[in-house]
Write a structure and sequence with these properties.
The chain is α/β, with parallel strands linked by helices. The chain has helices at residues 7-20, 44-54, 65-78, 89-97, 141-144, 161-171, and strands at 58-62, 84-86, 114-117, 121-123, 128-132, 147-153, 157-158, 179-182, 187-188, 196-197, 204-210. The protein has one domain: NagB/RpiA/CoA transferase-like (Rossmann fold, 3-Layer(aba) Sandwich), CATH 3.40.50.10420.
C-alpha cells in the first residue's frame, strides 16, 4: 500500500517528536562577541566603497564639506536634477553655502525627485546604509524620491551590522522605533525573474562620504 502521508505531514511529525523528546546534550557557553567573518585589512572607507558599488550604488569620496558642495553641484547639474528636497539642518546649511536650490516644504515632498538625507552609520562589510526614524528625514524621504542621496562622514563608518546597532544605542537614550539598512537602490526580480531596479523605491542611490577624520 502506497504511503499517502505528505511531505508536510512528515516534517511536522518530526518537529512534534523533537519538541516532546528534548535532547539531553548540554550546550556550552556561546561566544557572542567574536567576529563571524574574516576581518579585512582594507580601510573601512575602501571596504564600504567596494561593497556599495557592487550593489549598484554610486559612491563619491569628499575630502571636506567644501568638496562635497562642489561635487554635488556638478553631479546635480550634469544629471539635470530638479525638485531637490531636504529636511536635515546640517545638509541644508551646506546647500545654502553652495547656492543650491532645494525645498524643505512638506507640500513638495510627494513630487520630489531628489531626496537628501543623513544616516546613522555606514556598514562597511555589507556596503549598507543604516538609517532610523530618529533622523529629521524620518521614514518617508529615503523611499519617496527617485534618487536617494546620502551624506555621511568617515566617523560614521562601522565594520558590521552589530557595530552599527551599538553605534545607534550609544547615540540615543531610547531606541528609535524604526531602524533599517539600505543596500543599494531598490530592486526586485519577482516579475518573470527579470531584475527591475527602482521598482518600490529610489532607482538610484548615491553616498557622498565626507572625510572628517583626517581634516587639516
Amino acid at each position: 500500500m502506497q504511503d499517502s502521508t505528505t511531505s508536510k505531514e512528515k516534517i511536522l511529525k518530526k518537529i512534534r517528536k523533537g519538541l516532546i523528546h528534548k535532547s539531553t546534550q548540554e550546550i556550552g557557553d556561546v561566544d557572542k562577541e567574536s567576529e563571524i567573518f574574516v576581518t579585512s585589512e582594507e580601510p573601512l572607507e575602501i571596504q564600504f566603497a567596494q561593497n556599495f558599488s557592487a550593489l549598484n550604488g554610486k559612491f563619491v569620496f569628499c575630502e571636506n564639506e567644501t568638496e562635497f558642495i562642489e561635487s554635488f553641484d556638478f553631479i546635480a547639474k550634469d544629471n539635470e536634477w530638479e525638485n531637490i528636497f531636504c529636511l536635515e539642518s546640517a545638509i541644508k546649511e551646506l546647500l545654502q553655502k553652495g547656492n543650491i536650490k532645494f525645498s524643505d516644504q512638506e507640500s513638495d515632498l510627494l513630487k520630489t525627485d531628489i531626496g537628501l538625507t543623513l544616516c546613522e552609520c555606514l556598514v562597511a562589510r555589507t556596503g549598507s546604509v543604516m538609517i532610523s526614524s530618529k533622523q529629521a528625514s524620518g521614514r518617508r524621504l529615503p523611499v519617496y524620491a527617485n534618487f536617494h542621496i546620502v551624506v555621511a562622514y568617515s566617523s560614521q563608518l562601522v565594520n558590521n551590522v552589530k557595530d552599527g546597532l551599538k553605534f545607534i544605542k550609544d547615540k540615543y537614550t531610547q531606541w528609535p522605533s524604526m531602524i533599517s539598512t539600505i543596500s543599494g537602490p531598490s530592486r526586485t526580480a519577482d516579475i518573470e525573474k527579470t531584475l527591475v531596479q527602482g521598482a518600490h523605491g529610489p532607482r538610484e542611490m548615491f553616498v557622498f562620504l565626507i572625510d572628517d577624520l583626517h581634516a587639516e
